[in-house]
Amino acid sequence: MQLYNDTCMACSQLITKRYSTSFSMGIRVFDEHLRPPIYAVYGFVRFADEIVDTFHDYPKAQLLDRFRKDTYEAIEERISLNPVLQAFQETVHRYGTERELIDAFLRSMEMDLHHHTYEDSLYQEYIYGSAEVVGLMCLRVFCDGDNDLYDRLKAPARSLGAAFQKINFLRDMRSDFDERGRVYFPGVDFTAFTPEDKLMIEADIKKDFDDALKGIVELPRGARFGVYLAYVYYINLFKKIRRAPATRVTKERIRVNDGRKIYLLFSSALKHSFNLF
Question: Which of 37, 55, 144, 233 has the fewest CB atoms within 10 Å, counting from its CB?
Answer without folding.
Answer: 55
